[in-house]
């Protein structure tokens, strides 16, 4: 079995985690709604990830809703002492699978308690507030009220650390004036590189950057240059894309998700893939010509 140890480590909320982790979103049903098609395989994916050395899992109680947290609890509880589970709040699901903002004091408080209950823990290690001024990407708007609510729940002992997701640099600065922000989770990958400067700034401050959709999400990355590099290295394009992210900056923590054991093993193997300098240079030039395509 591949070990993710070769990916290196970084500090997340005072805990040391391996840089190649796992995102649980895809364990829910189609459209991140309802139960998994194969519950047994979903549990097996979680167990194999942790057995391979993954000790950073990303989730949310609005995945399903409740589905991924209940799967994590079913597969892994009582949790290994080094496992860091990061969750997020600020949305709920409609009966039609829609994503509905849930940012009032009452909704945020309820979300924290839902995560506590369904994960089976007394305190949440890290809670990300996901800004939703624009569901498709960061957009300006004050997050002071919502982060203050989470900071109060932190003071009550329900949350250890707070992070931010889908945010702008202005919002990050606003959040940091309220409390310590231990991670930023934004959309970033080999093609979508709007946060290049932000990643470097966070690295100087020792703050992890956790890219969501590191492989393109529901429309996986496709590029002739990416495919060519992968072929030369005897790897898959997705493994190369993950290896590029690991090399991009030391503070990048990866959470690729899958509901497939085969794809999990392929993703974890990226920890051991070494990219030569010429391959990195070629990949650095990809963003202008790479396009989304249908795939896993």
Would you write up a description of this structure?
- There is one protein chain.
- The protein is α/β, with parallel strands linked by helices.
- The protein has helices at 39-51, 67-76, 105-119, 144-155, 169-178, 196-204, 224-233, 237-248, 261-269, 277-284; strands at residues 9-12, 15-18, 22-23, 56-58, 84-89, 91-93, 99-101, 124-130, 159-165, 181-185, 221-222, 291-292.
- The strands form 4 sheets. It has a 6-stranded parallel sheet, with helices on one face. It has a two-stranded antiparallel ribbon with strand order 1-2.
- α4 (144-155) runs parallel beside α5 (169-178).
- The protein is globular, with a radius of gyration of 18 Å.
- The protein starts with 8 loop residues before the first strand and ends with a strand.
Question: What's the topology here?
Answer:
Blueprint: E1 9-12, E2 15-18, E3 22-23, H1 39-51, E4 56-58, H2 67-76, E5 84-89, E6 91-93, E7 99-101, H3 105-119, E8 124-130, H4 144-155, E9 159-165, H5 169-178, E10 181-185, H6 196-204, E11 221-222, H7 224-233, H8 237-248, H9 261-269, H10 277-284, E12 291-292
Parallel strand pairs: 3-4, 4-5, 5-8, 8-9, 9-10
Antiparallel strand pairs: 1-2, 6-7, 11-12
């Amino acid at each position: 079995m591949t070990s993710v140890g070769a990916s290196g480590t970084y500090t997340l909320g005072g805990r040391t985690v391996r840089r190649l982790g796992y995102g649980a979103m895809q364990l829910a049903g189609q459209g991140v709604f309802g139960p998994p098609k194969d519950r047994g395989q979903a549990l097996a994916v979680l167990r194999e990830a942790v057995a391979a050395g993954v000790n950073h899992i990303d989730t949310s109680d609005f995945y399903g809703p409740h589905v991924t947290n209940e799967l994590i609890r079913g597969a892994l509880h009582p949790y290994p002492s080094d496992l860091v589970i990061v969750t997020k709040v600020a949305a709920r699901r409609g009966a039609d699978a829609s994503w509905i903002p849930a940012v009032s004091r009452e909704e945020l408080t309820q979300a924290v308690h839902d995560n506590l209950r369904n994960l089976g823990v007394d305190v949440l290690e890290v809670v990300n507030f996901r800004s939703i001024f624009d569901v498709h990407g960061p957009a300006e708007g004050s997050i002071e009220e919502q982060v203050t609510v989470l900071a109060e729940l932190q003071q009550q002992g329900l949350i250890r650390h707070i992070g931010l997701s889908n945010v702008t640099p202005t919002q990050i600065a606003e959040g940091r004036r309220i409390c310590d922000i231990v991670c930023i989770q934004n959309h970033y990958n080999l093609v979508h590189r709007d946060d290049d400067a932000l990643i470097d700034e966070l690295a100087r401050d020792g703050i992890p950057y956790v890219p969501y959709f590191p492989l393109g999400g529901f429309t996986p990355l496709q590029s002739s240059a990416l495919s060519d590099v992968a072929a030369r290295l005897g790897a898959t394009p997705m493994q190369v894309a993950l290896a590029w992210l690991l090399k991009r900056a030391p503070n990048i923590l990866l959470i690729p998700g899958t509901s497939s054991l085969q794809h999990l093993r392929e993703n974890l193997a990226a920890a051991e893939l070494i990219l030569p300098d010429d391959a990195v240079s070629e990949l650095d030039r990809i963003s202008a010509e790479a396009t989304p395509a249908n795939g896993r």
